[in-house]
Amino acid sequence: MKKFVIAMGLFLASGASADQCQLTNYNDAKAAEKILKFAQESGGRVFQCVKCTASQKPSPLNFHSGTGIDTKKSKVGAKFYTAVRLDAVEMDQAYTYIQFTSQATSAFNLSKLTGCPSSDVAEVLAVDQF
Fold it and tell me: Which residues have a Cβ under 8 Å from the Cβ of 55 and sit 6 or more positions away?
């Protein structure tokens, strides 16, 4: 039984690390919300990609003038965190890329724009990659 408890603890700890910037501090989440609203007003596009490679292209998200963009505060343990959401779905800033206009040739990583600490993600993707 003790081995099972230790294994479950390791499994849960490793699962939590997959989300780098989904639950962040209030300022990072509000900055992401502001950036997304600017991109929305500019006719931009939003993509998600955990590990972008030549074979795994970013997935476009449903992002248009009617897309709801907001933040939601959550309590995890004794701490409060804030998530940015598109149509009430929390998103991880580390795996989200913003193309600010439909003519832009680059998509920028949202976590790098807000200052949320993320690792192993590209800062900029060339739009012609996808």
Answer: none
Domain span at 26: 20-129
Share in percent of the chain as helix, strand, coil (round to 5) = 30, 30, 40
Contact 28, 115 (CB under 8 A): yes
Looking at the DSSP bridge assignments, the partners of residue 48 are: 59, 96
Strand partners, 101: none
Tens digits of per-residue pLDDT, 1-49? 444 333 333 333 333 334 789 999 999 999 999 999 999 999 999 999 8
CA pair distance 38, 114, nearest whole angstrom: 14
User: How far, in Å, CA of 18 to CA of 5, rounded?
Assistant: 21
* Confidence band for 55, pLDDT divided at 50, 70 and 90: low
Residue 13 in domain? no
Q: Which tokens belong to 21?
A: 């910037």
In a domain, 2, yes or no: no
Token pair 């993600």: residue: 121
